[in-house]
Amino acid sequence: SGINGVLRPGIVHRLDKNTSGLMVVAKNGFIHNAMINIKIQKKYIAAVYGIYDEPAGAIDDPIKRRPGSVMIRDITDKDDPDGKVCLTYYRSILEEKEKEISLVEFILATGRCHQIRVHSTSKGHPLVGDGLYGPNSDDNPNDSFPNSKEMDSIIGRQGLHAYSLTFEHPENMHFVADLPEDMRALFPSLSEEFFHELLCKTDGLS
Fold first, then answer.
1. What is the pTM of this model?
2. Residues 30-41: pLDDT tens digits?
3. Which among 122, 136, 3 is positioned nearest to 66, based on CA atoms?
4. Catalytic residue positions, numbered
5. What DSSP line would sit under the chain, residue for residue?
């Protein structure tokens, strides 16, 4: 609805709280409504604990709300009537074996709440700094990563960044956002230029 006939601008899509990165914001209601039917491809970079056994793959596990919780989601069986189909593609792009952390690209085939955080945690790789699903959280504690308190303190939020955004408007629009400073701080020996080139290469721009 509008005020005095003027349509309100709106957010075309959302990001989880404390997730950084690119978003599409419409300048007016007409464009907002038009964008609802336009396919928007988003790619994410996450800092996760551990190193995936397979450097690339898909996580195809339904998600449902945890009983008794408003926010927390869990993996469930495929025959669970309360589970929602959930498919995530991942690819490791940087591994720091000494610190037991990795940078991983995630692409969502579905758009469930907390999808990346839940799927990665279910494979034994919670996101660095994740206060809901991470190893130092109250609801999903995990003592598998002895350096996690130090790593969590460096970033202070879940290490998740929407780095690439593509859509038609009307021609092809493609945007890339560099890795933010707090995520780069997890890898202090690597330069900002290094991460810029890594993200461009990961996104197929170089």
1. 0.90
2. 777 777 777 889
3. 122
4. 16
5. -EETTEEPPEESS---TT-EE---EESSHHHHHHHTTS--EEEEEEEEES--SSSEEEEE--EEEPTT-SS-EEE--TT-TT-B--EEEEEEEEEETTTTEEEEEEEESS--TTHHHHHHHHTT-PBTT-TTTSTTSSSS---S-TTHHHHHHHH-S--EEEEEEEEESSSEEEEE-PPPHHHHTTSTTS-HHHHHHHHHHHTT--
